[in-house]
Amino acid sequence: MEREVLPIWRHLRVVDVKRRTVRELVEHKARHAPIMANRILSRISAMLTFAMEQDWIESNPAWRIRQPGEERSRDRVLSRDELRELWPALHETEAKKEDGTPKPRLSQTLNDALLVMLLTAQRRGEVCTMRWQDIDLSTGWWLIPAESSKNADPHRVPLTPMALKILERREKADNRDDLYVFSNHRHTCVLDRAKKAAAILCAKAACHSSSARTTCPGPPRRTWARRAWIGSTSGTCSITAA
Predict the structure, then answer these.
(1) Contacts of 126 (CB under 8 A, 6+ apart)
(2) What is the pLDDT of residue 61?
(3) By C-alpha distance, which of 79, 221, 96, 88 is closest to 150?
């Protein structure tokens, strides 16, 4: 809103926002970013609904304005072969191709975060904002607080032996942050960097299928909805359809 709406509407009173005002702003954004235009329209509508509830305006001028972008279901998941190639890539911070050129690889922190996502089937935001105070390495439980949960409900997640091993190693690291488990800087989590991390590996390094190159795979949680993780041995993983 601060970047897309306020620069244009900064001097408008809420009563001066008309249906045409909303439509022109959304359609302008839709010319080069239709999905973002959908999000902007939703935020504007929510803002104007609040204004209506406060009796600042009589009606919501954004009501029933059609979203300009065509939404697509995010049902892309990693295949078995892609998972088998992704797994060893997440255990490397450096690698080279046969011709000696470097392969795209992630930092140890991002590797560990993605591994824990795969091993716990939890959302990216929940894993990347994992705090030391919320995990109990002795009992193998992780409590996701309400403020980190997408549905705003706290819930407990069992930690597998492999996930515990990763967390125990990070706890003993010299550069360990005292707040976040996955942090490269003091009191700063890797959430923003993790958004593109899996796509970098899958599209450029680990996954070579045509579908992987043309469609960005969904998060590990969505892959877990389709498949069950059986285990891994010597850098390879065994997977079966759920």
Answers:
(1) 144, 148, 149, 150
(2) 95
(3) 221
pLDDT at 237: 46
Please list the ranges in the chain whose pLDDT falls under 70.
Answer: 73-78, 198-242
Question: Quick one: tokens of 76?
Answer: 């892309």
Report d(CA 126, CA 149) in Å as an integer: 6
**Amino acid at site 146:** A
CB environment 139-177: b (16+ within 10 A), e (fewer) = eeebebeeebeeeeeeeebebeeebbebbeebeeeeeeb
Question: Model pTM greater than 0.70?
Answer: no
Tens of pLDDT, residues 181-222: 998 777 888 877 777 776 666 555 444 444 444 334 455 655
Single out the residue of 214, 216, 242, 215 nearest to residue 228, CA to CA.
242
